[in-house]
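Intended use. Records like the one below are meant for learning the mapping from a protein sequence to its folded structure. Do not use them to infer anything beyond what is encoded.
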Amino acid sequence: MCIDIQPYGTTQTAEQEDALNIGGFSDAAFDQMAEFASGQMDAPHWVGQIMAQAL
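Structure written out for the chain above:
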């Protein structure tokens, strides 16, 4: 897990299945790290996150 406290247009590592890039930091970062560690960050997870947002 790579956390950039101040997010920019670049990341510390390339996008890959076993690496998580987090831009910025708040309490939500801990939730993201927990979901990544438990293997829940696949495509259906993100579709569900997007669909849960009110328009």
